[in-house]
Structure formats: structure tokens, C-alpha cells
Design goal:
Radius of gyration: 22 Å
Largest sheet: none
Number of strands: 0
Number of helices: 14
Structural class: mainly alpha
Order of helices and strands: HHHHHHHHHHHHHH
Strand content: under 5%
Length: 331
Amino acid sequence: MAINPSREQGVNKHRKTILIAIKIVVTAVLIGWLATKIDYPALSESFSLLNPLLLASAVGLHVLAFILGGLRWWVLLRHTHDRVNFYNVLPSYYLGLFFNNILPTGVGGDVIRTIHLNLRGLRAKDLIVSALTDRIIGLMVVLLLGIGSIAFSPEVSLDSDTRVILAICFSAIMVGGLLMLSPRFIALIESLQRRYQRNRVRGTLLDIIRLCYSYRSRPGLVLRALVLTLFMQSLVILVYYLLGSSIGIELSAITYFGIIPIVFIAANLPVSVGGLGVRETALVALLAAAGIDTQRAIALSLLYLLVLWIASAPGAGVMLLAKKNIVHQAP
């Protein structure tokens, strides 16, 4: 029985609409739940402790972290585009950051930045591969950083069984990464690619995985990307630490390095709009587990959200500038 293409497109569009609606509902429910937990006089008291100069410094540090993120993507792009200019990559990266805050997924901005740079002459497949590798490196560093830090946190008490589980997870990530870089893995991918070469979707997906594997031939480039990721994530965690310390949250820096990576991962789950609600709920829950007062935890979540929005706001300027250029180029 033949499938009507227009009907299939309609079904897919309907499913996407339902998924977006679900994410909006999840976001609203989580924000509503947090709102019911707020003691507004206590929240106001926490905000009154914040030094405006420190808030400005936090924004500056976050902007620097974003610039390092753009630099990481540029480094990875140089694997296939040696002559690409960092000053051309950064606006596209920043545009993606802006859309990450408003799209109903934590990775929608990756699509936007890829399209934006593709319109400027770079091959789409190379951009997709670099963005995917960028995400993989970021995720691995966050996981290793979080697991390694939480095990040494003085505020988070872990029993021996939990420490063993963390050690197993840490080892599994390391071993899994090494296995994916092995010749046998790429041989398997190439075998599957030959098998599904006539299948457009599977063939393209396998080709992208193969191209991601090609970064194995540039260990120095990957190492630079890893170091940039470590500095980038550390700066964002430092932002949390500075904001938290300024409103009276007494936690060691190592505890933040254990907690915030979990918040990063939660915020990137495709269950809400731009991670909104999920990020804040995860942070409040984790800080509460570390013995922090709920009102101060909520205050920190809101302060960080403000810093994040301000730091990513230049992405909107990239979008407006792009529209202006299109208008000027029109006949």
C-alpha cells in the first residue's frame, strides 16, 4: 500500500506540534511548582545581598565562557576548513546560544548556528559533524568533571556503594570513549555504511558518524577542544559559585563542580523550552540535598537565569543584523 507523502508530512507536523505543546506544559508546570515554593520576603532579602558589581562580573565571565565555546567550535571546524575565520564563526555560535534559550529543545540552537554558517558558504555536512563533535566533547567533559568532583565534595556525603557506582561510571565513560576511537568501531561503521548506502537517512547518519571519527587523525586539535571545554565549563561553574557566595550560600567550590554538571545535563534534556524550569528545579533539588535553604537555592537559580539571558542576548543582535543585511541586499 502506497504512503501518501502529504499525509505523512501532515502526521509528522502534528506530532511535532504535540511534542512542542508537551514541552510548553512541562515548562509551565515546573515554573508554577517553583513559584509555589517561593517565600517572597526571603527571596527579596537574598537579592538584597547581591553586589551589582559582582552581578556584572558574573555576566562578563559568562560571556567569556561563550567566547571560549565559539573558539572550541572554530577549532573543530578547522579540521575540514583550515581557512575559516573565527570572527565569522563566533556570530553564528552566539546566534545558536540565543535560540537555545527560546526553542523547545536544548540543541535547537545547534541547528540554527549550522544553518547560519551554511548560508555563508560552509558545507552543511561538515558543520553538522563539527557541531555534533562539539556536543560530544562537551558532554564527556561535563560528565567526567561532575562525577570526579562530587566524589570529593565535603558537603555531599556518599556511602561506599555510591562511590563505587561513581567510579564505575567514570571508568565506563573513559573506556567507552576509547572503544569508539578504536579501528574496529570505524570498521563496523564502514561496513554498515556499505550495507545501507541506498538508504538515504541511515546512509547519511552513518556517514556523519564516520566523519566524526575522522577527528581521531587530529589528536592535537581534539586536545585543544577538550582544554577549551574544561575552561569554559569551569567559568560557568565559577559564575554559580560567585552568585551563590554573594547571597549567603556556603558551599565549597568542589561541590559546585559536582552539582552544576548535573544541572547542565538536565537543562539539555528535550523536555522543556530552552531548559527553562528543568534547570532551575534541578539546581534547587541538588542544593537542597546539600543542605542549602530552599529560598536561597531559588534565588541562585533565578540570578543565574538572569545572567544567562543577558550573556546570550548578543545573539539577538546577530539575528537582527542578518535581517538588516538581507534588506540592504534586496533589489
